[in-house]
Design brief:
Helix content is 25%, strand content 33%. It is α+β, with helices and mostly antiparallel strands. The protein has one domain.
């Protein structure tokens, strides 16, 4: 992946192919000269019905969520990304499972019922915390202090539904694996009382949350920041991806990608010891 992201960079903007919003696999036509190599690799995998790529582009049939994918061709390189996620339907959202008041209510462990309730609540809280940070390692990669802060950061104004946003990178037609962030989609709690089947929703990954919290609280959780992990958030208008990787020369490169959700226009930036290079283009949109 590192090698792919440091090839063929140019500060000059590229031509913009038209974004395509489609529901089924189309007959892909590669006509833009600047993205020809990447588009041909994508088309080749489409034509042979590569199961992995099709799953990333179309998702799976599920009435509880709707899938969206952005296929983004990097200009002047045989590299493309598939940024994909599934947005939960309204019925999948719920409030924070337990509040601090709930834990306080069962703090008296002298009564067997209280002890049982608190143990059950603690178990569910731990499962939710570990899942959102994808942390089932021993010893844990993220401290309990950070996980507690994340849990306490929930607001009564919102409803939540856990999920993953992934950025799959293909180089020379080969799947190099994903960068992903586990987190929560959220909607306003008042949406439950409305008539919308798909109210406005946005996503904040666990590591994106750590990065945001550190920015607001003077790096309080800096010990649990993992710069090589995907930091992904999806707001009402855009998708933002941020992480660092080591290039073949051994230099750390700071990578960011921003995609406009409606138009598919994107910008990639690579910042290393010798400055910043950027690429831009327009993603195909599948939903």
């Amino acid at each position: 992946m590192a090698a792919a992201q440091t090839k063929g960079l140019s500060a000059a903007p590229s031509k913009q192919p038209t974004a395509n919003a489609v529901r089924t696999i189309p007959a892909v036509k590669c006509v833009d000269h600047d993205t020809l190599a990447a588009c041909k690799s994508f088309k080749e995998l489409i034509d042979v019905r590569d199961k992995g790529l099709l799953a990333q582009v179309l998702g799976t049939l599920n009435e509880d969520q709707r899938h969206t994918a952005y296929v983004c061709f990097r200009p002047n390189a045989d590299t493309f990304s598939i940024v994909e996620f599934s947005i939960p339907r309204l019925k999948s959202y719920h409030p924070q499972l337990f509040t601090q008041d709930d834990f306080a209510r069962y703090a008296d462990d002298t009564h067997p019922t209280n002890a049982l309730m608190r143990a059950s609540m603690e178990q569910q809280k731990k499962m939710e915390e570990n899942s959102v940070f994808m942390d089932f390692s021993d010893p844990p990669a993220v401290s309990q202090y950070t996980k507690d802060k994340w849990y306490q950061n929930h607001s009564k104004e919102f409803l939540y539904s856990p999920n993953i946003v992934s950025d799959w990178r293909y180089q020379d037609g080969i799947d190099m694996g994903p960068v992903m962030d586990m987190g929560e989609w959220r909607i306003f709690a008042s949406s439950k009382n409305g008539k919308q089947n798909d109210p406005p929703s946005w996503f904040l990954g666990g590591y994106a949350w750590i990065e945001r919290y550190n920015g607001q609280h003077g790096d309080e959780l800096i010990r649990d920041e993992d710069p090589k992990h995907g930091h992904i958030n999806v707001d009402m208008s855009s998708i933002q991806i941020h992480y660092k990787f080591e290039n073949p020369a051994g230099d750390m490169v700071d990578y960011t990608m921003r995609i406009h959700r409606l138009t598919g226009r994107f910008v990639e930036s690579f910042t290393g010891p010798y400055g910043t290079n950027s690429e831009s283009g327009t993603c195909m949109i599948y939903r």
